[in-house]
Amino acid sequence: PESVKERTEGIKVIAEAKSFDWQKVTVPPPIENSAALEGLVRQFKKVVLSWYPDSNGIRFFSSLALVDSPPERCKAVVTDFARYPKFFKVMEDVRRIKGDRNAFTMEFKMKYKIIFPLTFEQSYDYVWQPGGARLSFTLNRLRDHTIDGEWGAWDFYPMDGKTLMSHTVFNDLRSGGFFL
User: Fold this and answer.
1) Looking at residue 176, what DSSP letter applies?
2) Contact criterion met (CB below 8 Å) for 38 and 159
3) Max alpha carbon distance in the chain (Å)?
4) Contact call for residues 170 and 64 (beta carbons, < 8 A)
5) How do residues 15-50 score in pLDDT, each as one tens digit?
6) How many angstroms separate the CA atoms of 152 and 126, rounded?
7) Which of 14, 48, 53, 72 is spaced 20 to 30 Å from 20 by Cα?
């Protein structure tokens, strides 16, 4: 649809920002849990959105799915960082650097095998929003990383004993260090 809109309306829709001010980038607000959104997820089981939530020109992606578990169970799985290496094959190690239950920093060591093994570490700051329906995360800006930025959030919407989950993220993969 984005490319059709570009051609039929003569406007540029898919336009990645060439540069932006890192200080102004924020995690977008939660996607409103409307009847239309619930209908899409019920019909298609998983929905992926591409959207520009603010004037920075940064495209975020959101993946939504209806999970047959209550929100507390879904939150427990998302925050079970110790088990990430079991489920994410590129994950070698995960450790908590600092923080408490509501705000914490995690470090992930990942290893990709493309032509030769590629290992790098990323650390993220996580914050639970009041009410516990959203866990936002940002790349920890106090440490060196192989990418320049990443912002995102997990949202948990209760729905008839199930959970409508949303994972929204922006990765600045233009930084060459990510692939080198």
Assistant:
1) G
2) yes
3) 51
4) no
5) 555 566 666 777 777 877 667 777 888 787 777 777
6) 10
7) 48
